[in-house]
Amino acid sequence: MNAKLAVGGYTGWHRHAAASLVVVKTGQITMHTPGKKECETSVHNAGTTFVHPEGAHNFVNTAAGETEFYIVYFVPAGG
């Protein structure tokens, strides 16, 4: 799936049943995931690929321009 986030845009907190592979084409994604006491944050720049785990997360565009990325969803057996 191809997605874009405007400057300061975000996906909102949501979850998936399995992990996904994310390829950042342009811009920068800051991913927030729940931690034990506070959110854990990781930053992913254009040209990088990362796996985001199943469960809750929020992507935020922290770049100076639009961020474009691709997501490959892994569907659990029977799902």
What does this structure look like?
The chain is mainly beta and 79 residues long. Helices cover 0% and strands 56% of the residues. The chain has strands at 2-5, 14-16, 20-26, 28-33, 40-45, 49-52, 55-61, 67-73. The strands form two sheets. Strands 1-8-3-6 form a four-stranded antiparallel sheet, with no helix packed on it. A four-stranded antiparallel sheet has the order 2-7-4-5, with no helix packed on it. The two termini are 18 Å apart.
Question: What structural keywords apply?
Answer:
mainly beta; four-stranded antiparallel sheet; 79 residues
Q: What's the overall average pLDDT, rounded?
A: 93
The Rg value, from CA coordinates, equals: 12 Å
Please state roughly what percent of the residues sit in beta strands, choosing from under 5%, 5-15%, 15-25%, 25-35%, 35-45% or over 45%.
over 45%
Please describe the biggest sheet, giving its number of strands, its sense, and whether it closes into a barrel: 4 strands, antiparallel
Shape, per Cα inertia axes: globular
- Biggest sheet: strands side by side, in what order? 1-8-3-6
Which assembly state applies to the chains in this document? single chain
Distance between the termini: 18 Å
Number of strands: 8
Helix content: under 10%
